[in-house]
Design a protein that fits this description.
This protein is of the alpha/beta class. It folds into two domains: 112 residues, no CATH class; 212 residues, Rossmann fold (3-Layer(aba) Sandwich), CATH 3.40.50. The protein contains 14 helices and eight strands. The protein starts with a helix and ends with a helix. The N terminus is likely disordered.
């Protein structure tokens, strides 16, 4: 590792160490908050309770992808007339992050959810295939296998939005023929790796971080062990980075559990994807497509400026910003977001 990369690693390590101390001091309060706060409303199914018979779709490089499909039977009128909704989750999450959307749309629409490669219940990928192009090919394979005909609405969060952009680039004909609408939620088309935006030294961290990640790779087993002793820190980081403000403890714990279930390789293997991300030119593929660009004003991971820039480059886009929301809009503003998605589906169906 170069001297510059090592200094960046030390800086990052020091910041993490400081957070660990704070986490230890507040661990008891966090655990107490988990038991006292509930985030679901009357009539909503408990978090993580929605399941259907899973099926395996094998990607073109042999990685098995876990897919679940909800919705009306194949003989119903809505099966032929209404678009299927394909949900694509983001980095370190799983398809479970769409819990509230699954609950809202599964009775009327085909709802397709899958775990991205190396995430959740899908098989592990080698690092060389953890790219936007490969994720786009995975999406194409899922569509081909489980929804081979009929209109589609693609909904992508964070890295899932990038996956949809990659799909539009590499499968433009399929987009023209099948995709009726798209939702790009809390995502970016480039420039997402400034870990400390606007602060002195952030460029150093950005430039050195690929080297830091590479240097940490041999220590994955030790890092896995260490994660077990920093669960309080992880929970607090999930709350602060994922949500824009006070968040129901059960939702934070649900998201935190999704992240914790992924191996360290999900972090190290996919990180270079973000360092190379430059997809603004691809957005021309959306120019004639009804598109929602949605963000939270307090998103700490993909700041709202990224969504504003995307919307500026798509003439047909509607930009919706939820004040006070963070990166996990589908949790924090679930009712409003579900209404927005329902309106898009109605628009492209009529």
């Amino acid at each position: 590792m170069s001297g510059r990369a090592w200094r960046a690693a030390v800086a990052v390590g020091g910041a993490v160490g400081g957070l660990a101390v704070a986490s230890a001091m507040t661990g008891l309060a966090i655990r107490r908050q988990r038991t006292l706060s509930e985030g679901h409303l009357d009539g909503e199914p408990p978090l993580g309770s929605l399941r259907s018979d899973g099926q395996t779709v094998v990607a073109d490089d042999g990685v098995p992808l876990h897919v679940e499909v909800d919705g009306p039977s194949s003989g119903s009128a809505s099966w032929a007339q209404d678009p299927a909704l394909v949900f694509v989750h983001g980095w370190t999450l799983t398809s479970d992050c769409w819990h509230f959307q699954r609950a809202a749309f599964r009775e009327r629409h085909r709802v397709v959810l899958y775990d991205q490669r190396s995430h959740g219940r899908s098989g592990r990928s080698d690092a060389s295939h953890c790219t936007v192009e490969q994720l786009a090919r995975d999406l194409a394979r899922v569509i081909e296998e489980v929804v081979p005909d009929g209109p589609l609405v693609l909904v992508g969060h964070s890295m899932g939005g990038m996956t949809i952009m990659g799909f539009a680039e590499h499968f433009a004909e399929r987009v023209r023929d099948r995709v009726a609408g798209a939702v790009l939620l809390s995502t970016s088309a480039g420039g997402v790796i400034k870990l400390v935006p606007g602060r002195r030294g952030s460029d150093l961290v950005v430039k050195a971080s690929p080297s830091v990640v590479a240097a940490l790779t041999p220590f994955k087993p030790a890092i896995e062990v260490g994660r077990r002793f920093t669960s309080g820190l992880a929970y607090e980081l999930t709350r602060r980075m994922g949500f824009g403000g006070p968040a129901p403890a059960d939702q934070v714990a649900f998201v935190d559990a999704m992240i914790a279930a992924n191996p360290v390789s999900v972090f190290t293997d996919f990180y270079p994807l973000f360092t190379r991300l430059e997809m603004y030119e691809i957005l021309r593929a959306f120019h004639d497509l009804p598109t929602l660009v949605v963000a939270g004003s307090r998103d700490a991971i993909t700041p709202v400026e990224h969504s504003r820039h995307i919307a500026e480059l798509i003439p047909t886009a509607e930009l919706v910003i939820y004040e006070g929301a963070g990166h996990l809009v589908m949790f924090e503003r679930r009712a409003e977001f579900n209404r927005l998605l329902a309106a898009l589906v109605e628009q492209v169906t009529s």
